[in-house]
C-alpha cells in the first residue's frame, strides 16, 4: 500500500483533529469555574442560609430518634444521663460537620468538578434575577407541601407495613421467661 503524499497526510491529520474537537463534549472544551464564580453562585442561591436552616431540622430528627430509642426500653437514671451525654456529643459533632465553614470548601470543589464556568455564571445570573429570587423565596413552602403530600401518599404503605409486622409478631410464639434461680 502506498502512502499519500505529505501534504495530504497533513490535511488528513488536521481534519481528524478538527472532527475530534467538534465531537468532543462541550465540558471538555469549556473553562472550569473559578472560586469567585462559585462564590457568586453560592451567594446568589443562598446556599449558606439553606444549610443554616437545615441544621436545626437535622438536630431535631436526631433528637426524635433518641427519644424513640429511649421510649422503647426502660432506662434507669444512670442510663438516661448517659443517653443525654451521647446526644450532646452527637449534636455537637453534627453542628461541626454541617457548619458552613466546613461545607463551603466541599461545595466549591463539587461545583468545580460538576459545572463549567458558563453554567455557574448562568445559574448565578438566574438566582440574581427576580425569577430566581422568587424561586428561592418559595422553595421552603414548596418543600413543606411536597413533604406533606409524600406523607399522605406514604400513609397507606406504612399502614400496610405496620399490619404485616403486627401479623409476624402475632404469629411468633412468645418465648418463656427464664426460670428464676433457686433461692439459697
Question: If you had to describe this structure to a student in words, what would you say it looks like?
Answer:
The chain is mainly α. The chain has a domain at 32-129. Helices cover 80% and strands 0% of the residues. The protein contains 8 helices and no strands. Helix 3 (35-44) crosses helix 6 and helix 7 crosses helix 8 (130-171). The chain starts with 5 loop residues before the first helix and ends in a 13-residue tail after the last helix. 6% of the residues are buried.
Topology, number of strands: 0
Helix and strand composition category: mainly alpha
Taking the alpha carbons of the first and last residues, their distance comes to 105 Å
| Quaternary structure type | single chain
Q: What order do the helices and strands follow?
A: HHHHHHHH
Secondary-structure map:
Blueprint: H1 6-23, H2 26-29, H3 35-44, H4 47-71, H5 77-97, H6 100-114, H7 117-128, H8 130-171
Amino acid at each position: 500500500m502506498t502512502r499519500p503524499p505529505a501534504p495530504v497526510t497533513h490535511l488528513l491529520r488536521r481534519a481528524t483533529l478538527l472532527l475530534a474537537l467538534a465531537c468532543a463534549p462541550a465540558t471538555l472544551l469549556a473553562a472550569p469555574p473559578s472560586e469567585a464564580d462559585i462564590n457568586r453562585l453560592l451567594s446568589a442561591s443562598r446556599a449558606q442560609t439553606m444549610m443554616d436552616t437545615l441544621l436545626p431540622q437535622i438536630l431535631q430528627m436526631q433528637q426524635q430518634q433518641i427519644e424513640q430509642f429511649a421510649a422503647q426500653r426502660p432506662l434507669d437514671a444512670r442510663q438516661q444521663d448517659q443517653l443525654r451525654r451521647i446526644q450532646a456529643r452527637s449534636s455537637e459533632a453534627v453542628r461541626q460537620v454541617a457548619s458552613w465553614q466546613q461545607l463551603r470548601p466541599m461545595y466549591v470543589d463539587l461545583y468545580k468538578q460538576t459545572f463549567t464556568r458558563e453554567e455557574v455564571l448562568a445559574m448565578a445570573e438566574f438566582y440574581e434575577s427576580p425569577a430566581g429570587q422568587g424561586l428561592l423565596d418559595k422553595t421552603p413552602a414548596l418543600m413543606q407541601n411536597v413533604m406533606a403530600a409524600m406523607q399522605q401518599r406514604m400513609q397507606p404503605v406504612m399502614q400496610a407495613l405496620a399490619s404485616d409486622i403486627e401479623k409476624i409478631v402475632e404469629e411468633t410464639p412468645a418465648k418463656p421467661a427464664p426460670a428464676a434461680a433457686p433461692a439459697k
